[in-house]
Design goal:
Elements: H1 10-24, H2 33-46, H3 52-61, H4 65-74, H5 86-101, E1 107-108, E2 111-119, H6 125-137, E3 145-152, H7 155-163, E4 165-167, H8 176-179, E5 183-184, E6 189-191, H9 194-197, E7 200-204, E8 218-223, H10 232-245, E9 246-254, E10 267-271, E11 274-277
Parallel strand pairs: 2-3, 2-8, 3-7, 8-9
Antiparallel strand pairs: 1-2, 4-6, 5-6, 9-11, 10-11
Length: 287
């Protein structure tokens, strides 16, 4: 059954939209009909089903957890690269540099703590860029208890990200000093060095889960080009929850086409798509 052998009716499209909204908060517009046919059509074929209606019935009645996850994975988009929206990383370096000059907010065995969350990490370029940028600019961070949590709803990209291995083409367009931070594997692939890989915990996470399984607070959260897939109500709820898990005066970095909208009352805009949590914001206690 190839794409085009069966159509996606309005009823079927509405059922797909309702399910992915309930499962992942993703709001599909009518412009996504072709994407739905292309991506879900492969799953329908693999299950030897005859229609999208039959596929949604299958998901509702007998799908395994892995098959239900495949549905969500198929409808997410994973477009990213190293040092994407570079000004965010430059700002982060300045922010962490200031933290290092101040009295630490918390310690682990006498070591100052730094916690950063990459929410919607896709194939890992964002959290690895965070780690590589900070280690290169602030080598004394090696003496800190510095950890990065990297999460994504798509289990397949989380597994890929955890390897830290990428094709050499990922270096195209990078400045030489940045390209040199990676290890060549000699087979057309590069690898993120162990010093950066060891800082990051990759985990699957649905941002619609409530409560989230981890506790804060985080000094900074990157949630870039994620909220664009949500409706305004869901966006407001998400940004409000992110504000609650940040330390007072911590930073939230969002995508270039996003804004906080109704969820922004606990933040102030300090730069292009960079928001600071207001001082009165109360983050959760550290674990």
């Amino acid at each position: 059954m190839e794409q085009g052998e069966f159509a996606l009716s309005d009823r079927e499209f509405n059922r797909v939209k309702a399910r992915v909204y309930a499962e992942a908060g993703i709001s599909l517009s009518d412009a996504k009909r072709t994407l739905v046919v292309s991506r879900l059509g492969k799953l329908v074929r693999n299950l030897k089903l005859g229609s999208f209606d039959a596929y949604v019935d299958y998901l509702e009645r007998q799908a395994t957890p892995a098959e239900a996850q495949d549905f969500v994975n198929a409808l997410t988009t994973n477009l990213t690269r190293f040092w994407r929206e570079d000004h965010h990383f430059e700002h982060l370096i300045g922010y962490v540099g200031q933290l290092m000059q101040q009295r630490p907010r918390g310690t682990t065995g006498g070591r100052p703590k730094l916690r950063i969350w990459s929410a919607g990490c896709s194939t890992g370029q964002e959290p690895y860029t965070i780690a590589l940028s900070l280690l290169a600019a602030l080598p004394e961070l090696k003496r800190w208890d510095f950890r990065i949590l990297a999460t994504d709803i798509d289990t397949s990209v989380v597994a890929k990200a955890a390897t830290g291995v990428y094709p050499e083409g990922e270096l195209n367009g990078l400045a030489p000093d940045r390209a040199r931070l990676f290890e060549s594997m000699g087979n057309g692939q590069i690898r993120v060095p162990a010093a950066a890989r060891e800082l990051i915990a990759f985990k699957p996470l649905n941002l619609m889960d409530n409560p989230w399984p981890m506790r804060g607070p985080f000094d900074a959260v990157f949630c870039r080009n994620v909220a664009i897939y949500f409706d305004k109500k869901t966006q407001g709820q998400l940004f409000a929850r992110l504000g609650a898990i940040l330390v007072p005066e911590g930073f939230l970095y969002i995508g270039h086409s996003e804004n906080l909208g109704a969820g922004g009352e606990n933040f102030r805009l300090v730069g292009k798509t960079i928001y600071q949590a207001r001082a009165q914001n109360k983050a959760r206690d550290a674990a």
